[in-house]
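Hi,

Apologies if this is the wrong queue. I'm a grad student, and the batch job for chitinase from Paractinoplanes rhizophilus produced an output file that my downstream script rejects. I'm not sure whether the problem is my script or the file. Here is the sequence I used:
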Amino acid sequence: MRGLTRRLVAVAAVAASIVAVSPVAAQAHGRSKSYVKVGYFTQWGIYGRDFQLSKVQNSGAAARLTHLNYAFGPVTADGVCASADPWADWQTPFSAELSVDGVADVAGQPIAGNLNQLAELKAKNPKLRVLISLGGWTGSAYFSDAALTGASRKKLVSSCIDLWIKGNLPGLSAGVAAGIFDGIDLDWEWPGSEGNAGNVIRPQDKHNFTLLTAEFRAQLDKLGKSTRKHYDLTAFLPAAPAKVTAGFEGKIFKYLDFGTVQGYDYHGSWELRSNQQSSIYVPKGAPDNPDFSADGAINAWVRAGAPKRQLVLGLPYYSQGWTGITSGGNGRFATATGPAPGVFANGTEDYKTVKNLPGFRLYRDWRAGNSWLFDGTTFWTYDDPAQMLQKTLYIRAKGLGGAMMWSLDGDDEKASLTKAINLGLTS
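Support response: The file is valid. Your script probably expects a header line. Output copied below for reference.
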């Protein structure tokens, strides 16, 4: 590991200058065929965040992604797939200004909403693969029940494929959304261990998750034989070694195309001490032992039997923040009074907002692989383009499969983070 650390430190010093590369030079590299670049688009982002898929297209982000995950589709108490918000998914009309293709939706068209916009996005980016993400933090309550028996697993998988892959949406013509989704992303948070309050948890979740992935793979492959398509199956995976041990078997990678490992929320404003949330390595002087880091998370998955090339590291497009710090210095590992004020939630803030906050000084720890902003009172973790480039260097050096980004609405209007990640992962 020391050799890898030295290499990352040596190249990280030039990262800030690399991100200044001209758009023409960046485009000349082309799209990498070796690394996946997965961006999450949130269903609800079209509301308060005013973030539509047209912005993914117009910013240049779509052209630099290999996969777009649409989040989320919940698993219901009846053990089937459903829409969390049909209005957002296939009903809401978009104006010409907000549409991917620049043409306004009209009354009576077969399908509207985000799904129609996804179809338009794919038309402009034919190599882009779009996946439906099932579950999420608030949509995983009944995964355990649905995965419990062979019959319940078949029922769940069949319903998910019927709704999202075959495109049989309630109240619309049969197959109206067929061909929009190229696969399924499993975001069960978490099998065998605590997630959102009220989630059903069982010790047998660990093996049942493997059986569930096998059932998804079998049914997707069966459909693929008739459609002559390969349908992707991926999963969002935890960073904590204890959660890996409690809920996952290495054999799941026989069924998955790849798994995305949580590379953020290692620390946050639920604690009263400023810290890193997405560091590559544990920083020197960190107060917690053991502590979380990207390298620690990846190593936990390798120990569990995951092939490195099927591991994709998650990267945050948002910051964790603390305020009320009075100890001076650079603000790191300092006692705070609470979360820093945020636009949508206290304690978190989008990159596009944090980067423009006045009065903050930028600090970098290249050896650990994390950065932060501090103004003497308020502290924000900070993954900017230079930091993202260092993380892509880690991904390459470690032999991983690529990067995942949560979530695209946190980037700026130029898609600076996405472009930096693409540059770092382009051969």
